[in-house]
Every structure is written in C-alpha cells, then in structure tokens.
Amino acid sequence: MARRALHPQLPISPGLFHHRWRLPPGLPRVFMANTVSLLPGTLSLELDANCLQVHVLDEGKDFLSELKKVEQRVAAMFGIFGALLVLVLLLGKSAIHYFGETGLYLLAFVSGIADVDPINLTLSRMSITELPLEVAVLGIVIAASTNTLVKAVLAVFVGGFGLGVRVIVPLLIAVGAGLLTARTM
Q1: How far is CA 172 from each of CA 32, 108, 111, rounded to the nearest angstrom?
Q2: By CB atoms within 10 Å of each CB, which of 11, 15, 93, 164 scores lowest?
Q3: Same domain, 111 and 173
Q4: What is the pLDDT of residue 5?
Q5: Across the 185 residues of the chain, what is the mean pLDDT of every consecutive 10-residue run?
Q6: How many CB atoms within 10 Å of residue 169?
C-alpha cells in the first residue's frame, strides 16, 4: 500500500463504500469497524444504525467480498463468546449451589486457563445480588493469576528458558501482588 501511495503516478482509485449491517448493534459493530480499518488500504469512516461507511484506496479491488468475510468472522466470534459467557454463568451458579465458594474458586481457576473475560463478567454480575464482593474479587484474581501463569509457561515454551525467566519473574510478582490485595479486602 505504501509503495502505491508514494508512487509518482499515484496508481490508486479511492472510493467510499457503504456496507449494510447484518451484525447486531453494539460491540460487534464497533469491533468490525476497527477490524476493517486494519485491512490494507481501508479506513472505517462512519458507523450509523444502518451501515458502515468505509474509505478505500482502490475501489477496483473486490473489497465488498472481503468486508462480508470479516463480518461473518466477527459474527462467529461473538456467537462463540456469547455461548461461552452463558456457559460460565450457568457453571458459576451451579458451582455456588453444589460446592459453595470452593466450587466457584475452582471454576475461576479452570476458566483462567483459557480466558478470563467470561468468569470476570459472571462474578461481577453475581456480586451485585447473590455473591459477597470479597468472594467475587478473589475469584477474579484467581482467574487472572491462572491466566498470567499460563502465559508465563507459554513464554518459556515458545521463547525458551532465557525469555521465560525474564517473563516469569515480573508475572509472578504481579500474581503475588494480586493475591495479597484480594486477601486483604
């Protein structure tokens, strides 16, 4: 793209596209608009209730098919995240019902291995009406700590022992600080 934009003859054909939304309002649309701006030669200009306006450097390219692919992937991603959120919410309520706080802490640990967002949202929502704030905070810290330690192990695995040592020490300090803070609440 830079070579084309800086070429003396400027071989570009800029244009505007209006893409009609098929995604639900809110975060999925904002995420897609941001993702589209990452595509080479594109910039999301305006989001409104009906469509996304996109500026492209070369309207001769088949941009609309790329836009449809991005929208399908965003829809799939948010569908999976929504299902995961519902699953963690149900597991959180079941853990409390059958195993009490210990079950919730175990769920936080297991959830932290993959993704902290669903358990964080679940515990935050449960703390409003049915869960003591201290339990929610400790569960969130457990999930974040687990996720941090998983990332440290991945750093060792992918980057070798040298990188692992440089990454693990600060991450362990962060985990320890988080657990100490949660326990003093």
Answers
A1: 35, 18, 19
A2: 11
A3: yes
A4: 59
A5: 64 83 86 84 88 85 80 82 76 85 90 85 89 90 90 80 82 85 74
A6: 11
SS3 14: coil
Number of domains in the chain: 2
CB-based burial label for 61 (10 Å; 0-12, 13-18, 19+): middle
Q: Does 170 lie in the same domain as 129?
A: yes
Question: Domain residues for 43?
Answer: 2-61
Length of the chain: 185
The H or E element containing residue 43 is: strand 42-47
